Amino acid sequence: MLFNYSIDGFENIQHQDYFALQQINAKLMSLYRSFGYHQISTPTFETYDLYVNEDSIPSDDLFKLVNHQGKVLVLKPDATLPVTRMAAMNHPNSQEIIKFSYQTNIYRNFSSPEIIKKEITQIGIEYFGNNSPECDGEVIALAIRSLLENGIEDVHIDLGHVGFINFLFDDLAFSCKEKATLFKYIENKNIGDIASYLEKLALPDAKKTVILKLPLLYGEPKTVLKEMKALCINDKMQQVVKKISEIYAHLEVIGLAGYVSFDLGFTNQMNYYSDINFKGYINSCGEPVISGGRYNNLSEKFGIPRPACGFAIDLLKVIDYMEQHQLLPRDDQKTDVIFYENPQKADAYKMAEQLRKKGSIAEVFLMTETKEKHVTSFKENALYKNAVLYFLMDGKLFSEMDGAFLEIKTIGSESEVM
Known about the structure:
Layout: H1 15-34, E1 38-39, E2 45-47, H2 49-52, E3 64-66, E4 72-75, H3 80-90, E5 98-107, E6 119-128, H4 133-148, E7 155-161, H5 162-171, H6 176-187, H7 191-199, H8 205-213, E8 218-219, H9 221-231, H10 235-253, E9 260-263, E10 276-282, E11 290-294, E12 308-314, H11 315-324, E13 335-340, H12 345-357, E14 361-366, H13 371-379, E15 387-393, E16 396-401, E17 404-408
Parallel strand pairs: 1-5, 7-9, 13-14, 13-15
Antiparallel strand pairs: 2-4, 3-4, 5-6, 6-12, 7-10, 8-9, 10-11, 11-12, 15-16, 16-17
Helix pairs in contact: 4-10, 5-10, 9-10
């Protein structure tokens, strides 16, 4: 009887997808390294205290456990916080430029019934110590190039800024509850609900008109920038327009602005973002595959004031898309499989070792059945779809080709049939 010991929300990764995962990971790490990012790793477990005061991740969404010392630990639910902690501990000079890249799994016990996945494989970068538009532009550009480098061209980035609406709401002295309600309506672009809610607030009509236009701040960047300028009611909002226009200008210089649209109405669950935030989409997929932004205040949690910007990619979402569109790298390397009769064991293993030294994959098996039965068995095994079968019998070497067995001198010499 075959028992199913799988756990909902956790996936097995089959060999072809794992091969693709490794290849994509290597390609992206090479890309990030070419921009000066150093690969690091943080622990699978973190202290509960690291997240307990972070209202961006609900406590119920954490996988908790207690170690033998009575300390409460969590499975890492986020990559940015641990990487920021690592940067603060190992680089206490707040003026240093630090560029890190990573590949890790994060774990969330999502309470929402719509979200089944509990283990998420991420790859990403974090850029510390630079608060310039060029830094933001580099991070956004690498997010775009991460998909382009893997043959995914149907890409766009929604770029927003958490400050634009916040600075407006601060000026209007909204309560936290009022802000949260309006943010929800604005993100859903529900103008009717916004209008109804504003009717309950003691607010001048001119300010209500500004708020009603916020959900419409999305689309072509230069058009949105003009609309943003017209809605500014304070200097901080004007500074947001200046900052985001400089980032877009940088992306124009490096030739990637065409992949970017603006959306000033979306929020991000990770509320440590203090400035720009963005989501990366493959246009035929509904959910974002990239999430990122600037978090200038997070490092202060660890005693080192330092600006930072970064993003993370959901690798398995990308792999799912690539598989559907025949973009995955495939493990098509040929495998040489040598079957031998007992008297020729030494010859078989010597032959396999010589093949491996040349970079080939070689496997060795003792013959326990007829060569025809071995062929049938291996041809039915998906793991050996690229295998070439050889047989050492009676002091002779045979190669199997389409059901025929041809005597050859050495492996790789099939054209030199004896």
